[in-house]
Amino acid sequence: MINKKITRFVGVLALLSGSALFTLSSQAATVPLDRIVAVVDNDVVLESELMSTARDIVRQLRANETPLPPQEVLQSQILEKLILDRLQLSRAERIGVQPSDQQVNATIAQVQKRQGLNDLQFQQKMQQDGMTLTDLQHKVRQELTIKQVQQGNVSRRIRITKQEVINFLDSTEGKFWNSPDYHLGHILIPMSEGEEVAKNKVKSLQTQLKNGADFRKLAISNSSGQFALQGGDLGWRKNSQLPGLFAEQAATLSKGAVSEPFKSGAGFHLLKLYDQRGGGEQLVEQTHVSHILLETSAIMTDEQAVSKLNKMRQKILSGTDFASEAKENSDDIGTMLKGGDMGWSNPGMFVPVFEKVMADTAIGDISEPFNTQFGWHILKVVDRRQEDMSEDMIRNQARNLLQSRRYQEELQSWLQEIRASAYVEVKL
């Protein structure tokens, strides 16, 4: 027989699912009994947390017009999530994982931007959801903490070998994945009135296109292709999904170009390449950069670090060797002995703040001091170059794809392992 606690939980969920007016703001009118619903190692999950999370999830399900599962199932799933969250947050505390205020606020700003809300609208939405900014920061901090703990524990369990990447790229799936995508327009002139008539007509259309005519309008008026009424738009197609003749022509076109007329059994064709994804030369601007890092501590405040870096910067601008200053002062052990030299880097290798300062600094210049989560830096841009990274990028993208697939599998295995090794007592 269902005990009183489950009856009360089911009653709350029934109220949530049956009332379109129920939001988090109604928490003020509901005084949950803070009873322990689960013991998790040295921590507990309270009934008020279970109810609050239930309100959140039910509101989200209703907003997405997703049917609610049976209340007993929902209760079990929510409680299991809270138990796993407790276990992961406990691990984060033990190893010192704690997202910075900057990371938390940046994440909230991204959420606001995705929702397309200004500051006032975002505040109003929080109020409608019964949340304060402090509540939201706490929730985001917990989510970021759990994500970092997962990445740290799961990523090191995954090893994608060079041979696995090669095998994937050589497979049918890999070749399909690696083939370029083309967004094409198509005009077909059939030879129903004779080959010469069709040839003359397609050449006339080609001339009009060279003079600036709209490809889509000409396709609607003249094409006998399957997609003529859509302006001949074939949409995005993988190279391997195109007829052989089309694939050959597409590979020779630059973005915005129209092919020469070509013939098949169906008639004469014109193709326009609207856009392309993948394939071809992938030029990347690499930057050769050196830096000096000062970490803040109880004996090195932010102000002291900035002052020291400014003095170093002035010495370097006056002729002192950057490498000498780095060897003597930098806290980055990995680059200190190399005079701060970080070598050639591809876009995205460093944290966003570092990337921006690097991009804004001219070759040979020394940046002003700037702050990242690692400390205070100055950097020198030694040089820049364009490199064709086609093969490297393909291999890296394939590795990332395989890593992502493996990550989800390993994440579930890891969660099951920490759940099995923990002391958990459910009191519902």
Describe this structure in words.
This protein is an alpha+beta fold and 428 residues long. It folds into 3 domains: 1-96, Orthogonal Bundle (Triger factor/SurA peptide-binding fold), CATH 1.10.4030; 180-277, Chitinase A, domain 3 (Roll), CATH 3.10.50; 283-388, Chitinase A, domain 3, CATH 3.10.50. The chain has helices at residues 4-18, 47-63, 71-95, 101-115, 119-128, 133-155, 162-170, 172-178, 195-210, 215-222, 244-252, 302-317, 322-329, 333-336, 352-360, 390-421; strands at 36-40, 43-46, 181-189, 233-238, 262-264, 267-277, 283-294, 341-345, 370-372, 375-388, 424-426. The strands form 3 sheets. Strands 4-3-6-5 form a 4-stranded antiparallel sheet. A 4-stranded antiparallel sheet has the order 8-7-10-9. Strand 1 and strand 2 (43-46) form a beta hairpin. Residues 1-32 have low confidence and may be disordered.
User: Based on helices, strands and strand pairing, what is the structural class?
Assistant: alpha+beta
Tally of separate helices: 16
Mind describing the biggest β-sheet? 4 strands, antiparallel
**How much is the average pLDDT?**
87
Beginning-to-end CA distance, first to last residue: 12 Å
Instruction: Determine Rg (CA atoms, Å).
Output: 30 Å
Number of domains: 3
List SSEs in N-to-C order. Answer: HEEHHHHHHHEHHEHEEEHHHEHEEHE
